[in-house]
Amino acid sequence: MATQTTRLQLTKPDYDETADIAVINENMNRIDSAIADIQDTVSTHGSQITALNTSVSTIQGSYVTKVKGNAETTYRTGQVNLTPANIGAAAASHSHSYLPLAGGTLTGQLKGTSAVMSGNVSTGQRITLGNGTTAEIYATTPSRTGSVLIAGGGLKSAGDENGTAVRLGAGGLTLVGGGEYAYTRYDLADLADSTEALYLGADGNVYIETNGNTIASRKTFTFGTGGTFNSPSTITQNGTAVSLSGHKHAAGDINSGTLALARGGTGASLSAAPSIITDLASTSGASPFAAKPRPGITGILPQAHGGTGAATVSANRVLAGPGSGSAAAPTWRTLGVPDLPSSFVTTVNNLGNNVNAIGKVLSKVGTSQTVASDSIFHSLASLNIGAGVYIIIVGFYCAGNATGYRDFTFSKTSVQGQVDNDRLASRCFNPGGSHPVYDHIVLPIDVSSTTTYYVWARQNSGSDLTMSASIRAVQIKS
């Protein structure tokens, strides 16, 4: 009874069945269809495969292969240990008569036209800046990492308390804070460095005081942590006193008139309960707000308001976030390899490996042998074939024989006595006089693991004959 292969479901006739051309043609059609599917897939994803191969080549070309210190003359490989001497540096035990880079005590004055420090500068005394005119502390780069920060003991003029000016400011954003405010508020990163604004803040209350020349009579304005404000005296507006203390209205106090839009009201008396406007593009119909028309929306609705931000979009574009990196606003763009699921990329890689295997030809031509008329199988050729789907072509030759039958068999057994029980295909020729035989067998095979296949031959009577065979395997699927 015929069976089928596990991958392409190719029909394999049993040994006692007659070969059917229709079955062979159906097997060939299945093989042709499988090859076409592979070609189509390669054509569709060829650019991704090329991009992945290019990335792998780039990574392989960036390895460090050799190492040489500046004081060395030759490169070294393997596990290399670089010492100070290798790079031209002095040994760790060397010493200098001058102040070391770390530690030590400076006993004199440090003088110069300029100095650049990469770390912190600390002193138990004061640091005096300037040349008697203007002293400045500033950042060399206009960025968040180069911002000026004055903390701890603060900044004080070198003059007396009565006349020398101290200026604290920045060409852009200026933050003055108590506690952790100046740090934490700045780290929110919602303020541009170029913003010419002044922020005052603190972890606790913020106090602004006046009349400080008579400190006991100072006036303190307090901004509380709960959003309250306290003034030491009456607040005036355009010269007129404004009373804030205890000024409030109960909800029941507003019992007539209309509340203006600027005060959070509707600006009109309501004759009915407000309704929900569902058609944003419509300008028809009465509004529940004093006969105002419904606000129609025309044009392009931006993404920030739930729209696409575009009336038309070029072909093959999708509205999506960035393909990699941090989150950002979506844009109309083409899809790339980073947008694809990792499982799909793995499948494409495997497909590329299959493509590399397709079309590989394995071949073995046996040597001519003299086969006796003893009805015993003789091995003419063998071929080792790895896993995959192949088209096998077995070619054979035999000299003429006027009396005996000649039998050629393709099998995967190496045991002479098992050939009849483990044959995959065979061809038998009747006595043919002095005419030699040239013929071949073509069949598909599905190899699950590496296997050696053999061509056997025998004859049952007549004179000894010269016979030879060859095996060729063309891979069509890995």
Features:
478 residues, Jelly Rolls, alpha+beta, four-stranded antiparallel beta sheet
Which secondary structure elements does this structure contain, and how are they paired or packed?
Blueprint (H helix, E strand, L loop, with lengths): L2 E2 L6 E2 L8 H40 L113 E5 L2 H7 L10 E5 L3 E5 L8 E5 L5 E2 L4 E3 L2 E3 L75 E3 L10 E3 L8 H16 L3 E5 L3 E3 L6 E8 L2 E11 L7 E6 L11 E7 L7 E11 L3 E9 L5 E13 L1
Helix pairs in contact: 1-3
Provide structural commentary:
This protein has helices at 21-60, 181-187, 342-357; strands at residues 3-4, 11-12, 174-178, 198-202, 206-210, 219-223, 229-230, 235-237, 240-242, 318-320, 331-333, 361-365, 369-371, 378-385, 388-398, 406-411, 423-429, 437-447, 451-459, 465-477. The chain has 478 residues and is an alpha+beta fold. The strands form seven sheets. Strands 12, 13, 15, 18 and 20 form a five-stranded antiparallel β-sheet that branches. Helix 1 (21-60) crosses helix 3. The protein is elongated and about 140 Å long.
